[in-house]
Amino acid sequence: xxxxxxxxxxxxxxxMGLDLFESNEAARAIFQKADEILGFELSxxxxxxxxxxxxxTKVTQPALFVHAMATLKAKSTAKPDAVAGHSLGEFSAxxxxxxxxxxxxxxxxxxxxxxxxxxCEAVPGTMAAILGLEDDKVExxxxxxxxxxxxxxxxxxxxxxxxxxxxxxxTAMEKLTEAGAKRAIQLEVGGAFHSPxxxxxxxxxxxxxxxxxxxxxxxxxxxxxTAVAETDPEVIKINLISQLTGAVKWTQSVENMxxxxxxxxxxxxxxxxxxSGLIKKVDRTADTQTL
Length: 291
Fold this sequence. Notes:
Blueprint (H helix, E strand, L loop, with lengths): L1 E5 L11 H6 L1 H14 L3 H7 L2 H5 L1 H19 L6 E4 L3 H8 L5 H21 L3 E6 L3 H9 L5 E8 L2 E6 L1 H13 L4 E4 L12 H12 L10 E2 L6 E2 L2 H10 L7 H10 L4 E4 L6 H9 L4 E4 L1
Helix pairs in contact: 2-5, 2-7, 5-6, 5-7, 6-7, 7-10, 8-9, 10-11
């Protein structure tokens, strides 16, 4: 069984998509359609923008989504047996399995990006990667801190990202280092993604998601907040709304895909290396490929 997996923020790179635009007509049409839907030339920022340009949430999220869709269009006619996406990548996965149209997916991604940007500006927050400590120990220490700080991204065994207020994350970093974490690295992000501080963004996106038509998918999606296979469009919507303030259970999603017979993971979009590396840390025998 083959799963298509789609990366989230952090997988962007300068010049992303230019090769596809120049060499493939179907991919070119995707970039042109995206510029038309958004009302600005996202493609130009992707092809010629600086790393700083690409780092803005309102650019990064639609850029990664469009890049994944253009890659899929240009390089694959195969139908996956399952799909999953890391955070933002969940929207790409939902287009890949037919739950969403490209147009609706892009509109939701852009609405999500703008809502998250607004939430970040309203309440400053940050995130940090905690390396070399058991998940339950990280959860326990976060829960003991009075400030907002939670486990946000379960990326692979021994790598968990925490998220919350600046003081909450900094306190947690000190306590987690004292508890034996090998490293605690504050991330260069715009805000406290996948934490309660994203509640205003969740509310804003909830309305957009509920007003969008979701179709019966061609294969299951392993969603971030539950890590289990899902095919019911109404449940998919609820999980997608919960994702903004809920944790990304990537480790658990990969474990469940492996248990359910997935043997090959095809990373689609972005730099092509982020998720493959995490999957190998869950199971080094897993077959990872890049589109």
